[in-house]
Amino acid sequence: MNRIIKISSPLNDYIIQDLRAGDEVYISGKIYTARDMAHKRLVDLIEKGQTLPIDLKGNIIYYAGPTPHKPGKVIGSIGPTTSGRMDLFTPKLLDAGLKGMIGKGNRSDKVIESIKKNKAIYFVAIGGAAALISKSIISSKIVCYEDLLAEAINELIVEDFPLIVAIDSFGNNLYDIGIEKYRIKY
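Request: output the structure for the sequence above.
Response:
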C-alpha cells in the first residue's frame, strides 16, 4: 500500500531515505524551476569551477517553465516537462548537491545510478494538471537567467505541492514496478 506523506524542502538524507517509489508526497517549502538551457548553464559553471547562482545543496529542481500569470494570480500554469531531456546534465547536478527532481517520464540508467549514489529522489507531477498544480504555489520569482524567458530559473514557495515518488534513493522505479504488476495480473 502506498503512503501519503507530507515533507518540506530543503530535503535531507533522513527524509529521502524514508520515501519509497509509489508514495504520494505533498511538499511545502522552496523549489526551483529549471529546464534544458538553464541546466546547460549550471553544468557549464560546475565544469569551470565557478559559483552557481543558486544553492543546489538539499534543494529540488522542478522541470517546468511557467506560463505568465493572470491578474491576481501568483503564477500561470506550470506543468512538468519531459525529464529525459535533462538526463545529460542531471548526474553533475546531483554530484553538486541537488537532492530532488520533479518532472514526468522515466529516467536513464545513468541518472538512476546517480540518484542511488547521491541518495537523491525523483518525483513525478501529474501532466495535464498544470493549472491545478499552480494552486499549490504561494510565491514565484525569477532568480537567474531571465534572458531564457519561460526557461529562467524561478524560486517557488509551495504548500502541499502534490507529487508521486517515481524513483527512490534505492533505485526502485515506479515505472518498472507498474509494468511488473501489469504482467502479473494479465
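Helices lie at 13-18, 36-47, 90-95, 109-117, 130-133, 174-185.
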